[in-house]
Write a structure and sequence with these properties.
heterodimer, A: seven-stranded mixed beta sheet, four-stranded antiparallel beta sheet, globular, B: globular
Chain lengths: ~120, ~110
């Protein structure tokens, strides 16, 4: 199993540019999570999907951030326009959480990708 | 507000000793709690999950306890090795809707010296 795949691994861009981060979850997993990690704020959940549907985007910091999951094997996180304070490591994670017809506990563990280190100059 | 607190200072420990990490939470009633390990430049890796009705869970040299009265979990690494050096994160579901959402603590760095 290849695990969660993220691209690019590193991204350096200038303020105002559009940035698109990509994620391929583990095959068969039906939940996908986007996180941001910084020294100051730790690991923060931005948005998560279940069966390709966004469930909670309350962690998305601003309208400049958007995420999509067009199918079960691909998701993107877009920042437009980017700002220096967006510099962080962005992680994608997936899990085999059951969906709407599932049981009472979402106990499936999350499998993280290697992250994308974003630097906005 | 909901908080998860972990020791902010790095834990320096000698090889062979037991490392004990603390995770305290407030204003939650989680059904379970998870522990992850994160190495520099990598994503977190799941280690253990303990449910609210379990007092203790073990996996090889790792042991986790969960006290819902104290709102605390302890994570122990016994017979520690230099390879155990990493940052350890606790995480729990802050919601009651069971979608698997996790909130993470800031993590505690462990440094095991030979």
């Amino acid at each position: 199993d290849a695990g969660v795949i993220q691209s690019p691994r590193h991204e350096v861009t200038e303020m105002g540019q559009e940035v698109t981060l990509r994620c391929k979850p583990i095959s068969g997993h039906n939940s996908l999570f986007w996180y941001r990690q910084t020294m100051m704020r730790g690991l923060e959940l931005l948005i998560y999907f279940n069966n390709n549907v966004p469930i909670d985007d309350s962690g998305m910091p601003e309208d400049r951030f958007s995420a999509k999951m067009p199918n079960a094997s691909f998701s993107t996180l877009k920042i437009q326009p980017s700002e220096p304070r967006d510099s962080a490591v962005y992680f994608c994670a997936s899990s085999g959480l059951r969906g709407l017809a599932g049981g009472p506990f979402g106990t499936d563990t999350q499998y993280f990708g290697p992250g994308t280190r974003l630097t906005v100059l | 507000s909901q908080k998860i607190e972990q020791n902010s200072e790095a834990l320096n420990i000698q090889e062979g000793k037991t490392a004990t990490l603390t995770c305290n939470y407030t204003n939650y009633s989680p059904a379970y709690l998870q522990w992850y390990r994160q190495d520099p430049g990598r994503g977190p890796v799941f280690l253990l999950l303990i449910r609210e009705n379990e007092k203790e869970k073990r996996k090889e040299r790792l042991k986790v306890t969960f006290d819902t009265t104290l709102k605390q979990s302890l994570f122990h690494i016994t017979a520690s090795q230099p390879a155990d050096s990493a940052t350890y994160l606790c995480a729990l579901d802050p919601t009651t809707d069971s979608w698997g959402k996790l909130q993470f603590g800031a993590g505690t760095q462990v440094v095991v010296t030979p």
